[in-house]
Amino acid sequence: MKKFILILFMLPLPLAAQLSSFSANGYVKYLFSTSKFPFVNERLNDHLIHARLNTRWYPAEPLTAAVEVRMRSYYGDSVEKLPGFLDQIKSHHEYAQLDDVLWHKKKSLGYVQLDRCWINYSQGNAEATLGRQRIAWGTAIVWNVIDLFNPQSILDFDYEEKPGADAVRIQYYTGAVSKVEIAVKPGKTKRRTIAAAHFSINAFEYDFHGIAGIRNDRWIFGGAWAGAIHKAGFRGEFLVSEAPGSSPTMSKYSVFPNALSPFQNNKPVLSTVLSGDYTFSNSLYLLTEILFNSNGKTKNVGLFYWQALQAGMLSPSRWSVFQEISYDITPLLRCGTFAIFNPIDKSSVIVPQLTWSMATNLDLTLIGFFTSGKHFTEWGDFGRSAFLRIKYSF
């Protein structure tokens, strides 16, 4: 398996210049981080080399195939001192893992994975995609409650592509900006299977979306919209889930393993997000989003992080507020800050960022990660970190 993945990672480079039906691109990044967590006595300093290769093959007019490989090499204190570090960075799929640990030593770790591997057939207004793919549903920028297959956190800033799902997806375009589709991600049990239908239309200068399906063995339905009010972006999403009832907590990271899920109840669950953004003529950008989970916690929110992920929730809290402000200092230098605030327990995370375009395809980014809050609040135990990243794209 290890040799197979390495060959896939390296072979397309010389072929790209030879085959017109083949294309390749990617990036190489170096990330330095220094972090201080409440549960670790000393500061953790880490180095990460992150490389990615995206390939496309067009064997015939209706067919497209893709293989995308991601390789990470870690060195530092987190590998040695954070329990379960390897398991936290590994991908988790029901059937084909398509990954390998290249090495795992006291302070260093090499890990490689295929996070995209699909084939697409397109004919007329219809297309079908089979394999590990990104199925991104939703209109909001930060939180997508109708993203059933790969809900992710904005704090995972070093993984722009987001993970893929092993699924089959069929799409039929009913117009230039409208379509219907069905997507199924099979699981080894009914609880792990996701199946849903999605439609999108454009009316009254807005894009409207609707979904219905099954996740976690529960019926769900929802919708979304995207448009503008006086040149300001206005988006929203909602998702209603069947009452979760009593179900065990299976996550190995649970504070109470094998206990009943802390999110069980006998009422339908509503998740919704409202989003608005505006860009001024001088490049100043403002974004605000509000997330509500009717099933979210109001006390000791930080204890329920992993259970919330398992339940498909974007936050364990009842309410979350996001605010971003950014500005182009020069055409090559952009600064910004975003914050997530929990209005119930008053905890927060603030993430300032500065990006400099040093040269063509070469960027330097400085990122801070500062949290505040009492013990067991949503953000109170996350610690503080600083990052320096250099990224070269090809």
Describe the model:
With 394 residues, the protein is mainly beta. The chain has a domain of 107 residues. Helices cover 8% and strands 54% of the residues. The chain contains five helices and 19 strands. The chain has an 18-stranded antiparallel beta barrel. Strand 15 and strand 16 form a beta hairpin. The N terminus is likely disordered.
Helical percent range? Answer: under 10%
- What are the segments in which pLDDT stays under 50 over at least 5 consecutive residues? 3-19, 247-259
β-sheet strand percentage = over 45%
H/E series:
HHEEEHHEEEEEEEEEEEHEEEEE
Number of helices: 5
Shape: globular
The whole-number mean of residue pLDDT values reads 89
Per DSSP E runs of 2 or more residues, the count of β-strands stands at: 19
Structural class based on helices, strands and sheet pairing: mainly beta
Radius of gyration, CA atoms, in whole angstroms: 22 Å
Note the gap between the termini. Answer: 26 Å
Major sheet details: 18 strands, antiparallel, barrel
